[in-house]
Specification:
By secondary structure, the protein is of the alpha+beta class. The chain is built from six helices and four strands. The strands form two sheets. Strands 1-2 form a two-stranded parallel sheet.
């Protein structure tokens, strides 16, 4: 988090870190509402929320460590929480792959109305060679 804070402070942008698990944001719960309200409070104050997976707080997250964490899926769940129209994932790959080990399986376009939780889970199963998920 310190790296983000330093880089953004060079441009007079304040940041706040959020550590969340899939369970925190997947279902409508008191915890999800609290996270949503906190993120909105940051945005209202011109503070950039940096949201990261909190790996060691659940067995599911700990099991995911062997595959690398899954911040892409968390990004999708956060976007879904806020009913976002767009989600941009920054990566060093040439796109989203149906099968990450097959470079010919790149998906040219993903339409929001075609997405389901199952499709997102499948698409987020792989990782780039420098990412953790």
């Amino acid at each position: 988090m310190g790296s983000y804070r330093q880089k953004f402070s060079d441009n007079n942008i304040h940041v706040a870190g959020f550590l969340v698990t899939h369970a925190d944001i997947a279902d409508k719960s008191e915890r999800r509402t609290m996270i949503q309200e906190s993120i909105l409070a940051c945005l209202d104050r011109n503070i950039l929320p940096i949201i990261n997976e909190n790996d060691p707080l659940s067995i599911e997250e700990i099991d995911a460590l062997g595959r690398g964490g899954d911040n892409d899926q968390n990004a999708f769940l956060i976007a879904k929480c806020f009913q976002a129209q767009d989600l941009f994932l920054v990566t060093n790959t040439n796109g989203v792959y149906e099968n990450p080990s097959d470079p010919l399986s790149r998906i040219a376009e993903i339409r929001a109305q075609d997405l389901s939780d199952d499709i997102i889970t499948q698409l987020c199963a792989g990782k780039s060679n420098t990412g953790t998920g």
